[in-house]
Amino acid sequence: MKNITIAFCLFNAGIHPVYAETIKDTSVPLACSHFTTDADYININLVMQLEEREVAMRVPQEFLEDAWNRQEGARKTAFLFRTMIDTFEPVTRAQTPYLDFEYTSFFINDYINLPELAELMLDSASPGKASPREPLSAYDTHPFQYGLVEVIPNYPKELQENVYLKITPDGTVKTVIACSVIGTVAFPGCNQLSRTPSGVDIKFHYRLKYLPIWQAMQNNIHSFIECAIDGPDQ
């Protein structure tokens, strides 16, 4: 599959510095290319305790690094995966120090709903201020870049994270992203939460410079989970 290289140089400098870097476009999901007929698979089960259900998956063995996850029929409340951002190749724990954060780690789990997660992120975005948790509807928003809206914080001078949402026209929150404010940490990054079409909850982390392709990364991860649920014969 051909990769297209695009330079992202139009970052909002009023919020983040401009990153004059090239990032491979991952708008076409690469994840399902690993689900081949000759791959070695492990059957795993995600136990979603809040929803009182289990999700059966068939995952290529190369994506399961730890021996306890490679047990056939493993039942866990969470599974961790690491992949390269541009190619979606699996990454081992030993490789991570040499990859300059060009990979992402993602958890599949069973989280509370996305609006409540956004409220928690907003509540902790200004840790120096003690205030009661407020509903998401109490915050104003304004358009941001990359198809996102930014939530206006209550304490902008104390802010350590910016919170962004992907909201559908009917007002449904589809994605929540919290990114470090420049200068608050040595390596600014983002945590992103979403839910796949099959109802599996996802959380993944990446360096701030990759925020412009948040949707492409999410598409890849969602595709991986959906292929694991549906099987390789598609």
What does this structure look like?
By secondary structure, this protein is mainly beta. It has helices at residues 114-124, 214-230; strands at 4-8, 21-25, 41-48, 53-60, 74-76, 79-84, 103-109, 141-143, 149-151, 161-167, 173-180, 189-195, 201-207. The chain has one domain. Helices cover 12% and strands 33% of the residues. The strands form 3 sheets. Strands 6-7-13-12-11-10-9-8 form an 8-stranded antiparallel beta sheet, sandwiched between helices. It has a 3-stranded mixed beta sheet with strand order 4-3-5. It has a two-stranded antiparallel sheet with strand order 1-2. Strand 3 and strand 4 form a beta hairpin. The radius of gyration is 18 Å and the shape is globular.
Task: Please summarize what this structure is.
The chain is mostly beta strands and about 230 residues long.
Question: Could you list some keywords that capture this structure?
Answer:
globular, disordered N terminus, 234 residues, 13 strands, 3-stranded mixed β-sheet, mainly beta, single chain
- Global Rg: 18 Å
Number of spatially distinct domains = 1
Regions with pLDDT < 50 over 5+ consecutive residues? 1-28
Distance between the termini: 18 Å
Q: Which shape, going by the Cα principal axes?
A: globular
**DSSP helix count?**
2
Q: How much of the sequence is in beta strands?
A: 25-35%
Biggest sheet, strands in spatial order?
A: 6-7-13-12-11-10-9-8
Order of helices and strands: EEEEEEEHEEEEEEH
For the sheet with most strands, the description reads: 8 strands, antiparallel
